[in-house]
Design a protein that fits this description.
Elements (H helix, E strand, L loop, with lengths): L14 E5 L3 E8 L9 H8 L5 H9 L3 E3 L2 E2 L11 E4 L15 H4 L6 E4 L3 E6 L16 H12 L13 E2 L8 E7 L2 H12 L3 E10 L6 E11 L4 E5 L7 E13 L2 E8 L6 H8 L23 E8 L15 E3 L4 H6 L7
Parallel strand pairs: 9-15
Antiparallel strand pairs: 1-2, 2-5, 3-4, 3-5, 6-7, 7-9, 8-9, 10-14, 10-15, 11-12, 11-13, 13-14, 15-16
Length: 345
């Protein structure tokens, strides 16, 4: 696999010097591929996180931020190889700390389905957060991925000025399945656009209580999220703050009062599948938030993002090689447990 940081692909440069005649400190940066394409003001906000926004705009305006030796407008687009000189006092730069020290010693545990120089596809286990929250900062999917790439030598947070490997999609903590992680800023930008344009098909397996009246169909409604309860409600007609949610489904098998369903998301709303099936009177097995768990042994809801199809209809730049390809997880525990004879997936 080609190393994205091989000579010539990324040229980080951070120099601190004193200007002649007692000028303030100057730091110089050379823009690499992962910072290219950004607006100058947005790059500055990431590169100098302690610099207040209004002051950053002023420094750009009075040319204390020089692009290739000249002043520039705040919306100037950066290109690979551009040289930025920042005449900004040291106090505004984030001092070095130990926040990322765990990257070197953390033991990443990942089930990688696919990887190239641009991205990787991970099969996230149920119970693992995608991103840190107030209770869990280290043991998350993105942390495992960043530590993995750091230890491989493919990502160095000290060399990058604003980019960190990031997730293109996310799934609930207690839902398992495929998550796309971008290694480069270009991959993140392109994949996010493809997801918005519905050029990436996401399919889920779920087990619901009972049987749907129509074995195959469409669930459609408006979801309103309660931020305090971290829960959504489903309505048939529009509501203030409501977002359209559309899920296609088909029944794959039924037995013992349960049905195995395949779902395709046409929209990606919070708790969409869980809330819509519960609203239809068929909550997911093991779903304590929208259904019932009394008498059930399952720790997590029976829901798995088991398949991704890349169906690009426009140029995907560095990701064009993925077009037309499908990735699918090899096994889903609740399918094996409740529908062991089912094999059509």
């Amino acid at each position: 696999m080609k190393n994205q940081y091989e000579a010539g692909s990324f040229l980080p440069k951070g120099a601190l010097c004193r200007g002649a005649g007692g000028e303030r400190d100057m730091k110089e940066f050379t823009i690499g591929k992962n910072d290219a394409g950004q607006r100058l003001d947005r790059w500055l906000a990431k590169a100098v996180p302690l610099l207040p926004g209004p002051l950053a705009q002023k420094y750009i305006r009075i040319k204390r931020v020089k692009l290739n030796g000249k002043g520039a407008k705040q919306d100037a687009r950066l290109c690979q190889g551009d040289v930025l000189r920042l005449y900004i006092n040291d106090e505004f730069f984030d001092p070095p700390g130990q926040d990322n020290a765990f990257l070197a010693v953390f033991r990443p545990q990942l089930n990688i389905l696919y990887e190239d120089e641009n991205l990787l596809l991970c099969d996230k286990r149920p119970g693992l957060l995608c991103h840190p929250d107030q209770k869990e900062y280290v043991n998350t999917l993105i942390t495992h991925i960043q530590a993995y790439l750091y230890q491989k030598g493919e990502w160095n947070p000290k060399a990058e000025q604003s980019f960190s490997p990031a997730l293109c999609n996310r799934i609930d903590r207690n839902t398992g399945g495929i998550v796309i992680a971008a290694k480069t800023a270009q991959a993140l930008r392109v994949m996010n656009q493809k997801i918005r344009n519905r050029e990436v098909e996401k399919r889920y397996l779920a087990i619901i209580h009972g049987r749907m009246k129509q074995p195959e169909g469409r669930l459609e409604g408006f979801l309103v999220k309660d931020e305090e309860k971290k829960q959504v409600s489903v309505y048939r007609s529009p509501r203030p703050g409501g977002k359209t949610a559309v899920t296609l489904y088909r029944t794959l098998a039924s037995a013992n009062g349960l049905s195995l369903m395949e779902c395709q998301l046409l929209t990606g709303r919070t708790h969409q599948i869980r809330a819509q099936f519960a609203a239809a009177g068929h909550p997911l097995l093991g779903d304590g938030k929208y259904g019932r768990t009394q008498g059930e042994a399952r720790k997590y809801q029976a829901l798995y993002s088991y398949r991704l199809d890349f169906r690009f209809t426009t140029d995907a730049e560095a990701l064009n090689s993925l077009n037309g390809k499908t990735w699918q997880v090899k096994r889903v525990d609740f399918v094996e447990e409740y529908f062991p004879d089912f094999s059509d997936r």
